[in-house]
Specification:
Layout lengths: L1 E4 L2 E12 L6 E7 L6 E7 L5 E5 L11 E12 L3 E2 L5 H36 L1 E2 L2 E2 L4 H29 L5 H25 L11 H13 L4 H13 L15
Antiparallel strand pairs: 1-2, 2-6, 3-4, 4-7, 5-6, 8-9
Helix pairs in contact: 1-2, 1-3, 1-4, 2-3, 3-4, 3-5
């Protein structure tokens, strides 16, 4: 929550899972204005009195990103550090739409890497005197992985073209992020199956990709939330919050 005070603003609250917040020199904080009830944006500098960022421990995925818990205890922000272009969630949704394009490509890259690893593995490893690539079930899984990757590439390409032409909507971006991360889950799962027991070893990278994909599936809007953003756009009905149910007379 943000409160207006003489000379600026006072920030109070907590935020979780903020990427690289433990060592960032500048934090961009979005907070609800206590007066207008709208979201506003602010710059908070490292070392500000009342600001504390603690690294979240024991992650299994995207370990290169240092996610943190942020505590804001009466943090003063001068007026000049307010982001004047952010005055509502509608302003923030424009940023989310752009970032979801970028995130939509991450599972595509992960899937391509898993496919390459599995392709090499099946060609090199032999069972009963023949390479694993010679077995029908393995070929079917490999082809299914490749089909998903080709479809994901086209979705990513289409998103970029829509953005370049100025025609991309929040629903487009949300659909792309939700769909590619969902299909990538299937690709990585098939890859883990193809490697058998070796699929759970970090040596072959598929297990690492399996873990890295899980946070991607959730951040920048979970699969469910992104689906609802697109659902609202195609139906004209927002279903994030169910309509109030009339009280029964019984």
């Amino acid at each position: 929550m943000i409160f207006k005070v003489p000379g600026g603003w006072q920030l109070d609250g907590q935020k979780r899972w903020i990427g690289n917040s433990t060592f960032a020199d500048v934090l961009v904080i979005l907070a609800r204005n206590a007066d207008t009830k709208q979201l506003n944006g602010f710059i908070v500098k490292k070392g500000a009195p009342g600001l504390r960022a603690t690294k979240i421990q024991n992650k299994i995925g995207l370990r290169m990103v240092q996610n943190g818990d942020i505590l804001l205890n009466k943090v003063f922000v001068p007026e000049e550090d307010r982001l004047t272009g952010i005055n509502s969630f509608q302003d923030i949704s424009k940023v989310l739409a752009m970032s979801r394009i970028m995130v939509a490509w991450q599972p595509i890259g992960i899937s391509m890497g898993v496919y390459d690893m599995c392709h090499r593995y099946l060609k090199e490893r032999k069972q009963f005197g023949a390479p694993l690539a010679a077995f029908q079930l393995n070929q079917e899984k490999l082809v299914r992985m490749l089909g998903n990757i080709q479809a994901m590439l086209l979705v990513g390409w289409r998103l970029c073209k829509l953005y370049e032409s100025g025609k991309m909507t929040p629903g487009h971006a949300s659909l792309g992020k939700a769909w590619t991360s969902s299909k990538s889950r299937e690709v990585v799962s098939l890859g883990r199956e193809l490697l058998g027991g070796n699929g759970i070893l970090a040596d072959f990278l598929v297990a690492k990709a399996f873990c890295d994909l899980e946070p991607i599936y959730s951040y920048e809007g979970t699969y469910d939330i992104n689906s609802l953003v697109t659902g609202r756009e195609i139906t004209g009905i927002a279903s994030f919050k169910p309509a109030a149910v009339a009280k029964s007379r019984l």
